[in-house]
Design a protein that fits this description.
258 residues; elongated
């Protein structure tokens, strides 16, 4: 009986030790997750305030704790974009999309970079995956419309942009993209109409104003070009970055993949 009691006691101590080990491990993991989340939240706050360097330091701390945190990877990619490091951004967005297939924003950002890199098939596939998860995603629609234009499927591109316009009439990228579709078809009247429709809705929008100026200059309409240059200079809504559709696909940039 005594031997059995000793064996039972040893067994209980082993079980108790194992339980304590599990509790300690869970607590440690929970602590790590909290620290990671704290760093991530600080990075988000800094990023939203335009404090990119500080955001980069905080997200680096978060990733040092959990390198497979998908939202952390996504934010790291966005920070890399702000710094002009497209290759780093591409790696982070791809990693985030692989870690969490439901992370729509990672797919959308990837589709944009594929488009800029003239990888039209990959851009379209990634945009479609994003739309399969969220059929109303405007940015994915814009990317897919650009891909359709490159395939000379102008009707499909225009139809997609019209849907986007109905869903988000305050988005300047839609008007810019619609204008580009008409320009590619040689229909300058409709291209001008799309731009002016956008300015009628968003009269202080800098990218739209710049595009209108460029449009009139290219078409040797100096009077209208000058008129919108004056409006551009009077605008108090100068934006730091131009939307994706304002960047020409032939713009010089490093290849994302060697």
């Amino acid at each position: 009986f005594g031997g059995e009691f000793k064996n039972t006691g040893k067994s209980m101590r082993k079980s108790l030790f194992a339980l304590l080990l599990i509790i300690v491990t869970v607590c440690l993991l929970g602590g790590c997750e909290k620290r990671r989340d704290d760093f991530y939240q600080k990075a988000v706050e800094y990023y939203n305030k335009g404090m990119i360097t500080e955001a980069g330091l905080e997200i680096k701390n978060a990733l040092s704790i959990d390198s497979e945190c998908a939202p952390c990877r996504l934010l790291s990619g966005k920070i890399a974009l702000e710094k002009g490091n497209l290759q780093r951004a591409f790696v982070d967005f791809k990693y985030a999309a692989d870690l969490d297939p439901a992370l729509i924003e990672a797919k959308v950002e990837l589709s944009k970079l594929y488009l800029l890199d003239r990888e039209y098939y990959d851009a379209g596939e990634m945009a479609r995956k994003a739309l399969n998860l969220d059929a109303s995603n405007i940015e994915a629609r814009l990317v897919l419309a650009s891909v359709l234009v490159e395939s000379k499927k102008f009707g499909e591109a225009q139809e997609m942009l019209e849907i986007a316009l109905n869903e988000d009439p305050e988005n300047p990228d839609v008007y810019l993209s619609m204008s580009s579709v008409f320009i590619r078809q040689g229909n300058m009247e409709k291209a001008e109409g799309a731009l002016l429709k956008g300015l009628n809705r968003l009269p202080q929008n800098t990218p739209l104003l710049m595009k209108v100026v460029a449009f009139y200059r290219k078409n040797n309409d100096s009077d209208n070009a000058l008129k919108y240059v004056e409006k551009l200079l009077q605008s108090s809504h100068v934006q730091r970055f131009l939307p994706l559709s304002f960047i020409p696909p032939w713009a010089t940039m490093p290849r994302l993949r060697s």
